[in-house]
Amino acid sequence: MTDLSDKTIFLVDDDKDFCFLIKMMLKKTKVKLLFAYNGEEAIQFMDKQATQGIDIDLILLDIQMPLISGYTVIDLFKKRYPELPVMAVTAFGMIGEREKCIQSGFDEYLSKPFEESDLVILINRLLNPES
Ligand SMILES: [Mg+2]
Question: What is the pTM (predicted TM-score) of this model?
Fold first, then answer.
């Protein structure tokens, strides 16, 4: 079993049901989860984190959100926090979307709906790039 009890993931998604689903999927890993429900909230939260020293290991970022899309958020995050891995979680699932995400700076891409095992495998890969 994957133990992520020393890791923190920041999940940014406007779909609260989806946030709850992720929370359930990752429960067994004991990872610490933080949430924001729109892009602006996410940016403000990261700015606040930055002043205190960022204690986030991975960001899961939705693409389709009201007002500020995931593409705008990733652009800003990668400029300010280039070391921090960010994975797209998107309901688009269109052909070419993955490439667009990677080109935009995302480190990984996961299209909804997905299996718990897919999520955990990708998270592990991003948190432990050497293993
Ligand atoms: Mg959304």
Answer: 0.94
